[in-house]
Write a structure and sequence with these properties.
- Helices cover 55% and strands 7% of the residues.
- It is mainly alpha-helical.
- It has two domains: 213 residues, HUPs (Rossmann fold), CATH 3.40.50.620; 83 residues, Tyrosyl-Transfer RNA Synthetase (Orthogonal Bundle), CATH 1.10.240.
- The strands form two sheets. Strands 1-2-3 form a three-stranded parallel β-sheet. A two-stranded parallel sheet has the order 4-5.
- β1, α1 and β2 form a beta-alpha-beta unit.
- The two termini are 36 Å apart.
- The protein binds tryptophan (TRP) and iron/sulfur cluster.
- The site of iron/sulfur cluster has 14 residues, from α12 and α13.
């Protein structure tokens, strides 16, 4: 395989079963990237602990579910390195060494720090680990000398911090780390059935595991352009959350047809939605088939993680050798 695009690293917190937001926002892009780049994709279980430290019981099952979903959507453990962060302790070692050189104000001014503290009220996030979590992310990325980090827009400040950490480290100890670039996925931000961002915690998600009937009943009720109160009221797809599914899943011709039908009130919302619902069902069918086949192979997740850990650790060890030498630890 020719790999032209350099190393790619990305991680996801173990959130359990994945939904269409993950599929269209990240996973399809990861599956494409693995064709051209050396990819390291990992379950960020330590990151989960930075916010969920009081309730860690779901992390193990969520990790297993997520790996099964990754495999089912086409991430290939023969091609990409799929692993679990906590199984490669070099992430923690590099994080510790970075903590020696990073000024605390750099972390305090990361936008997600105050935002999350406000949003997740009810949890005590005045912890050392929560403050340092973007630095752990820097270690995740630099350990593999990533060129590109595919992330959502909200994560770009963390990639920027990573570049600053790399520069500071290189200035003290010599050029070890390349500066990575964020790769903001063009792909779709998928709305949930209520029009807000799709999220399990909002209860508006279509899971990758939803069967065809469930997909239908969720999406057929999805919010539309509020002007279409009655069947005879015209609307505009521009103002319709459901139409964002047509944008992702339908052909240009189908979009033109429903757009015309919507603006002239010649079709109803149910007929309109059926066009995209069928596509979603068609996409999920094979994913679910592969998932079921994987579930019949007990131990498959353990095997994939063991292999991923081995490959990740080999690279991580090499980088840490350079880092330890540069910092006077050998
Ligand atoms: N912080 C990311 C998130 O919450 C997850 C993450 C952890 C990550 N380490 C990473 C993403 C390294 C990209 C690269 O979504
Ligand atoms: Fe949305 Fe289609 Fe209804 Fe128009 S007809 S409001 S695009 S669901």
């Amino acid at each position: 395989m020719t790999r032209t695009a350099g190393v790619v690293v990305s991680g996801t917190r173990p959130t359990g079963a994945l939904h269409l937001g993950h599929l269209n926002g990240a996973l399809k892009n990861w599956v494409e990237l693995q064709k051209s780049a050396r990819c390291f994709f990992f379950v960020a279980d330590w990151h989960a602990l930075t916010t969920d430290y009081a309730e860690p019981s779901g992390i193990a099952d969520s990790t297993t579910a997520m790996i099964l979903d990754w495999l089912a959507v086409g991430l290939d453990p023969e091609v990409s390195v799929l692993f679990r962060q906590s199984q490669v302790p070099e992430h923690a070692e590099l994080h510790l060494l970075f903590s020696m050189i990073i000024p605390v104000p750099w972390l305090e001014r990361v936008p997600s720090y105050k935002e999350q503290q406000e949003q997740l009220e009810g949890r005590d996030l005045s912890t050392y680990g929560f403050l340092g979590y973007p630095l752990l992310q820097s270690a995740d990325i630099l350990l593999y000398k990533a060129a590109h980090v595919p992330v959502g827009e909200d994560q770009l400040p963390h990639v920027e911090l990573t570049r600053e950490v790399a520069r500071r480290f290189n200035r003290f100890y010599g050029p070890i780390f390349p500066e990575p670039a964020g790769l903001v996925v063009q792909a779709a931000r998928v709305p949930g059935t209520d029009g807000r961002k799709m999220s399990k915690s909002y209860g508006n998600a279509v899971a990758l595991s939803d069967d065809s009937d469930t997909v239908y009943s969720k999406l057929v009720r999805m919010v539309t352009d509020p002007r279409r109160q009655r069947r005879t009221d015209p609307g505009d797809p521009k103002d319709c959350p459901a139409f964002q599914f047509h944008e992702i899943y339908c052909t240009e011709q189908e979009r033109a047809e429903v757009t015309q039908g919507c603006r002239s009130a010649s079709i109803g919302c149910v007929d309109c939605k059926k066009v995209m619902i069928r596509r979603v069902q068609d996409e999920l069918g094979p994913i679910q088939e592969r998932r079921r086949a994987l579930e019949l192979r007990p131990g498959v997740v353990g095997e994939v993680l063991a292999e991923g850990r081995r490959k990740a650790a080999a690279v991580a060890e090499e980088t840490m050798g350079e880092v330890r030498r540069a910092m006077g630890l050998l």
